[in-house]
Amino acid sequence: MTPEPALQPRHLLIVEDNPVFRRQLERVLERLGLRANILSCATGTQALDLLELPRTQVDLAFLDLGLPDISGLEVIHAMRRRFPEAPVLVISVIDSERTLLAAIRAGARGYVLKGQSEENLMATIEDVMRGNYPISPSLARVLFKLAGAPMAAAAQEFGLSPRELETLRLISRGHSYDEVASLMGVALSTVQSNIRNLYRKLDAHSQVQAVSKAREAGLL
To answer: What residue spans define the domains of the chain?
Structure first.
């Protein structure tokens, strides 16, 4: 069973200049049943001005980096100064290695690419609310490459592929196989195949045992 979200945000901030995507995100938040006050900004300057107001409260923020006036990174820095505990999820079309790292270093707690279905977006937001750090699979591979050390070495030792490692990470967070398939954008049969390979390579006989062995080996 998927764990209940630890965060129940009452004040949300959306910083997005595309009105179509902004409305889609608002619709996703409505579908999640969040009873929250939603603050929407079309530019980074509007967001910075809003964050300067004493009455402004933000529990969870969603922002694009490619804003028409300033970089979304400036908004992340402002969020961290004003609300250091509030998660910031980047939802962008920018998939460059440099931008991904800059966003994470600025304080983003997740980075996903636009173009996913509303169902996937809902699952991503729920992941953030559970305290996780969702990263689009294609971007996660960049992080594994850059991390270069313990996790990559451990994965190589067990012969795990990037897809198997991503599957392992998601099931360790309590996602069902169907949810993993949706988040990774693959068929359920692919997830099941990844799980069988994980069991074999980790010499595990259950999901709990696989996750436990992975943590001991430094894979999680």
So the answer is: 11-140, 148-216
User: Distance between CA atoms of 62 and 70, rounded to whole angstroms?
Assistant: 16
State the architecture of 148-216 in CATH terms.
Orthogonal Bundle (1.10)
Place of tokens 């594994």: 144
6, two tokens: 């630890």
> Mean pLDDT over residues 168-197, rounded?
89
For the chain, what is the total number of helices (H) and then of strands (E)? 11, 5
Q: What is the Cα–Cα distance from 186 to 182, expressed in whole angstroms?
A: 7
Pick the CATH number of 11-140 from 3.40.1110.10, 3.30.70.80, 3.50.30.30, 3.40.50.2300: 3.40.50.2300
What residues does 60 pair with on adjacent strands?
A: 12
Instruction: List alpha helices for 32-96, DSSP H.
Output: 44-52, 72-82
Q: How far is CA 28 from the centre of its chain?
A: 15
Q: For residue range 68-119, what is the model confidence (pLDDT) as tens digits?
A: 999 999 999 999 999 999 999 999 998 887 788 888 888 899 999 998 888 9
* pTM of the complete model beyond 0.90: no
Q: Are 198 and 205 in contact (CB under 8 A)?
A: no
Please state, in angstroms and as integers, the Cα–Cα distance from residue 109 to each residue in 7, 26, 86, 218, following that order.
Answer: 14, 20, 9, 21
